[in-house]
Design brief:
The chain is of the alpha/beta class. Helices cover 24% and strands 38% of the residues.
């Protein structure tokens, strides 16, 4: 699985003019399931996201996790993270999980996140979404987990 974590002071997802997910300070996570990904891979990625120390402590050092600060987690599916741009000018998405499998793994991550963290919002799988955010720092961290 691939993810892009963005530390935000606020973020929201809109579909057809309606806000469907919104958080204050926390993490906006763009999430992509790839071929061969499993629940075990998803569990490792989620555990790392929740414990990654990228929020400032009292001394201003990145020493606190999302769980430490009780921040929001906004999970947005984004299959385009699987893009392969090595051949030509049109990206290939052959590494992305098939839509049914991608949805299943995205829903799994959302359910596991809600069981582990108090503030979880989402986008809508396969929807045309508009994502707005105020990146705090800016802090943007790409992550990849595999079996």
């Amino acid at each position: 699985m691939k993810a892009v974590l963005q530390r935000v002071s606020e973020a929201r997802v809109t579909v057809e003019g309606e806000v469907i997910g919104e958080i204050g300070p926390g993490l906006l996570v763009l999430l992509c399931a790839e071929r061969g990904d499993t629940e075990a891979v998803a569990d490792k990625l989620l555990a790392k996201m929740l414990k990654l120390r990228i929020f400032a402590d009292e001394a201003g050092k990145m020493n606190r996790s999302l769980q430490d600060i009780g921040g929001g987690l906004l999970l947005v599916s984004q299959f385009t993270l699987a893009a392969d741009t090595s051949g030509g000018n049109r990206p290939s998405f052959g590494q992305a999980a098939a839509p049914d499998e991608g949805r299943r793994l995205y829903d799994y991550v959302v359910a596991q996140a809600r069981a582990a963290h108090p503030v979880v919002q989402t986008g809508r799988f396969a929807a045309d979404m508009q994502v707005q955010l105020v990146n705090d720092g800016p802090v943007t961290i790409p992550m990849q987990m595999s079996a």
